[in-house]
Amino acid sequence: MKKLAMAAGLALTMGMSATAMAHPTNSGYVTDSGDSVWRTGFGGCWHTGFWSQEDATVEGCDGYKKMAPKAAEPAPVAPAKAPEMMDVSKKFAVFFDFDSAVVDSVSNIVDYVNGLQKVNTIRLVGHADPIGSSAYNDALSKRRAENVAAALRSAGVGASMNVDYMGETAPIAQCSGRGAELIRCLRADRRVDVHVAGKK
């Protein structure tokens, strides 16, 4: 009976030897021909005679768990490029009553200036119609330009302004009437031209 048991044990050992082999990447574990680690009856992994604690690198054996791959860091986002500003310019005209330097409104000029990213220049040129002496019209056109500049500053326009005047020397109206009709026709000459240049 004893000889029979020894023979059976020997046969079992030989059968294991025929199919057991070292783990393909870790010589500390025993695998079958399909590279699966052999398990004990208690779920543990079979060790070879060369096993050491440093060999505990097989998933599910001796408490080893494979570390989850580190998530890739998101690629840095390039900052949005600021839109380039464009050079812009616009001309306005402020008109006056006959023999007057009282400014009516500059709101349209103020709105335009406030809509710019940058103001480069504001140039004001005063004009007068030809009724009256040249000296008087020079002084009147100067007061008109200065009053428009003051109105713009009062409305919050802080940019520097170049103020000039031309009297009656740059007419644009073509009139041939007399009296009140002539005064009405010459309204286009009673003006201040405002040239605004900047970036938007």
UniProtKB/TrEMBL annotation:
Classification via SUPFAM superfamilies: OmpA-like
Location of this chain's protein in the cell: Cell outer membrane
Matches recorded under InterPro entries: Bact_OuterMem_StrucFunc, OMP_bac, OmpA-like, OmpA-like_sf
Keyword vocabulary terms for this entry: Cell outer membrane, Membrane, Signal
Family annotation (Pfam families): OmpA (PF00691)
Extent of the signal sequence: 1-22
A GO cellular component entry from the record: cell outer membrane
Annotated ranges, domain OmpA-like: 83-200
Protein name per its UniProtKB record: OmpA family protein
Organism: Neptunomonas marina
